Amino acid sequence: MRSRPPFLVGRILAAVFGVAAASAAHAQQTVAAPEYGPASGTLLIVGGNMQDGSGIAQKFIDLAGGPSRKFVIVPTNGGNRNADGSLRVYEAERVLAEWKKRGLTNVVMLHTADPKVADTEAFVKPLLDADGVWFDGGRQWNMVDSYMNTRTLTEFTKVLARGGVIAGSSAGATIQGDYLVRGDTSGAEVMMTQEANHQHGFAMLRKSAIDQHINSRNRWDDLIPVIKKYPEYLGIGLSEDTAIIVRGDSFEVFGRFKVAVHDNSRTYQPWEKPYFVLSHGDVFNMKARRVERYGLGTPPPRPAASPTPSPTPAVNAR
How far apart, in whole angstroms, are the C-alpha atoms of residue 72 and residue 106? Predict the structure, then answer.
């Protein structure tokens, strides 16, 4: 049998190993693709109020790289039209005042009520090099009316792709979810609207439904019917001055109070509410549907081993 020349053997081996390495890299990328959060960048999703003493505003600034980075503030949830039907006008200085007090030196406002404008190159220009974008509170369906299926929404997601931060409080939290709770234009008390164009948010956090103000407005149970109807979703109820920091398929709780997680894949006892509660520092893996760490990085306690049952005496057997 004729042997192959050494140089040919080397080329064959190199090709084989090259194909194997490429296949392994592709497989690793496929496995690593998150199902819930962004593949890069960070979401900061806040339950409302956001007192400066909570540290959440500063956390947003830090996640974006510091006060000298470029920030875009979007007030659109505050309303596109006034009660008389006229277009609402936002004054940039008023919208940006609190952020400038927090030390931001390169911050602009972005707003339109017209999706045709939101689809233009000129309108999205401030987003092209933004490091952090903040969605104000109000009513989340206003953001849908202005930006859904436009270039603006595409550029929001590109901020994440560059490693930036998308953040928002109250309605600015709910709009980041997939199913849009309280999206009905008739009032915030309607959890599941029949308005087809207001049933979905921007899905920056996919397979989720996000509620806010659960502590101050006693909304702890309000996501129950949503998750009952859409059991494949993860329900996340946020207290005021409390946020989740989302990277990939995990989030960490940050803030003063609690986050209620509605997870239909868990078994609950008859006396339990169909959700469980997390606190500051707890880390939850949404894909695995389990707590990764409790409190400031402390590993969760191991479940106690079940005692081995003693043999039942024969006299008690039935």
Answer: 9
48-85 in b/e form (b: 16+ CB < 10 A) is bbbeeebbbbebbbebbeebebbbbbbbbbbebeeeee
Beta-sheet pairing, 165-169 with 208-211: unpaired
Amino acid at 96: L
If one counts the domains in the chain, the total is 1
Quote the CA–CA distance of 103 and 98 in Å, as a whole number: 9
Q: Does 95 reside within a domain? A: yes
Residue 311 in domain = no
DSSP code for 179: B
Please determine, for residue 318, whether its predicted confidence score (pLDDT) is greater than 60: no
Residue 175 within a domain? yes
Cα 32 from Cα 297, distance rounded (Å): 22
The pLDDT score that the predictor gives to residue 52 is: 78
Counting Cα atoms < 13 Å in the Cβ hemisphere of 64 gives 27
Residue 129 pLDDT > 70, yes or no?
A: yes
- Return d(Cα 153, Cα 118) in angstroms, integer: 8
| pLDDT tens column, 43-86 | 999 999 987 788 999 999 999 999 999 999 999 999 999 999 99
282 occurs within a structural domain: yes
Predicted pLDDT at 32? 74
Q: What does the pLDDT average to over 201-214? A: 98
Give me the CATH number covering residue 100. Answer: 3.40.50.880
Give the separation between CA 234 and CA 278, rounded to whole angstroms.
14
Task: With residue 117 as reference, give the H or E element that holds it.
Answer: helix 115-118
Residue 170 belongs to domain spanning = 35-299
Average pLDDT, the chain: 89
Q: How far is CA 137 from CA 47, 176, 214, 267, in A?
A: 10, 12, 15, 34
